[in-house]
TrEMBL record:
InterPro entries reported for this sequence: ABC1_dom (IPR004147), Kinase-like_dom_sf (IPR011009), Mito_struct-func_regulator (IPR051130), Prot_kinase_dom (IPR000719)
Protein name in UniProt: Protein kinase domain-containing protein
UniProt key word Membrane: yes
CDD domains associated with the record: ABC1_ADCK3-like (cd05121)
Transmembrane parts of this sequence: 468-490
Amino acid sequence: MPSIDLKEFQEKISTQFRPWQRSFQFWARAADIYTGYKVFQLRVSFEKDVEKADAMWERQHEHAADKIYSMCYDMGGFFLKVAQVIGKPDLAPAAWVRRLVTLCDQAPKTPSNVVRLILENELGKSVDDVFERYDWDPIGSASIAQVHRARLKGDKKDVVVKVQHPGVQDLMLTDLKNLQAFALCVQKTDIKFDLFSVCKEMEKQVKTEPLWIVYEFDFTREADAMDRIRRFLSENNKKTVVKVPRVIKDVVTRRVLTMEYIDGIPILNLKDEIIKRGINPDGKLAAAAKQNILKSLTLAYGQMILKSGFFHADPHPGNILICKGSEVALLDYGQVKELPNSLRLGYANLVLAIADNDHIRASDGLRELGIDTLSLCEDERAELFKLAQVMFDTKLPPGVKILQPFAEDSTIKKIAVQAFPEELFSVLRTVHLLRGLSVGLGVNYSCAEEWRPLAEEALYFSGRLKGWLVLHTFLMHVVLDILVNLSSVVSGENLRSRNRLRRWFFRRPSRWSK
C-alpha cells in the first residue's frame, strides 16, 4: 500500500478550497458593509436636524472605513487596488481616505527567506553572486510585489529590485470574478453606471485571452513599457517632465524587475517634509511647489494619452515620488494602456468640448466614444455635460470638495450610464486619480484646459482640425506662456495665472471642422 504524504495532501485540499474560502470571506464582509449603509440610510432619514445628520454620517463612515480597511488588508490581492481606487479625497468620505490611504505601499510583506528563494530561482544565481548589498527589509509592499533597495556587484549606484509575491495571480482572478458579480448587483440598485465593464477592463490587466498571457504579472513586459514611456517623454520634451526609472535589463525576469534607484519622498509625505524644512505648508512657496508638481504630472499624462495613446495607467499616490526641486518621479509600470486611435481622437474631441464649455459637442463626444446613456431628468444636455466633467476632467464644481455618487442629486442618478467602453476605463481612472491628487494638494484645476493644445495637435494631425486655427492657437499659447512666466514671477501663482489667461484668450466658438 503506497504511503500518503499527509502534509502534501492537506496542501492540495487547502489549495482547491482556497477560492471558495476567499469568495465566502468577500461576500460576507461586502454584504455586512453594504447592508450597514442601507440600514443607516433609513435610520438617518428620520433625523431632521442637518448638523446631527452630518455627525451621524461621519460616525457611519468611520465605522465602515474600519471594516473596509480590514477587508482589504486581510484579503490583500486585488482588494489593495480597490482601496487605492476608492480611497481618493475627491470621491470617498474623509474617514475612508484617512484609513485607506495607508494601504498604498504598506501591504502585507513576503518573508525574506521566500524573497531569497524567488530571486535565486528567477536569476539562476545566489543573491550574493548578483548583489553587493541587498536590504531585506522592503521599501514598500503593494498588491502584486514588494520593492527592495540593493546594489549590484561592481556598481557604485543603488538599484531597486521589485519581487513578485508568490501565488498572487490566482488570488486576483478570484477577486475579480467576485467584484464583477458585486458590480452587477450595485449598478442595478444604487449606481446607474456600467461598473461591470469597468471590472472587465481591470481583468484584462491580469490576463489576456486566448493564450492567458500574464500582463501585469510579467515584469519583462513592464520593463518594456517603462523603456517605451521613458523614451517617448524624453523625445517630446527638452526638459524632463517626470522621471522614469531606467531598467537594468540584465537583471529582469518575469517575476523580478531591477531598475535605477530614484531618491525622493512619497507624495503622501509632502506636507510633513515641507513643515520639516520650516516652510509654511499654506504659504506661497508651498503652493508654487504643489502647482509645479501637478503641472508636471498633467503635462506628462496629456502627452501620453493624447499624443501617444500609450500611457501609465496607475498614478495613485504610492507610485509618485517628489524629488529635489519639486521634480516628479513616476513609478510602477505594471498597469499601462494603449488606446486605439479612434478612442484617442474621440477623447481629444471631448477634451476640447469640456475646455470650451460646449454642451452640444460634449454630448456628441460621449456618443462618439461609445458611452451609452439614458436620461432620467429634464435638462438632459446640461446633465450630460456635467457627466462629461465628472468623468473626464479634474476640476470640481464651485464649492464642491467631494463627489457623492450616491447622493440623490448626483449626475449619475440623473443620467444612467448603460454602456461604457472597457478600454476607456484606464483614462477614466487616470483622470480620477489626478483629481484625487489635486484635492489632496489643495489645487483645484482643469486638466481639460491644460490639455487643450495637445488635443488640438492630435486632431490636427488626424485631419480633423483646420490648419489656420491650429496656427492661431499655437501663437496664442506662445503669448500665453510669456505672460504666465511674467505673472508667476510676480505672484508665484503659475497654474492659476495660466488658467485665468487661458480663459481670456480662448473665448471663442468651437474650432474643429468635423
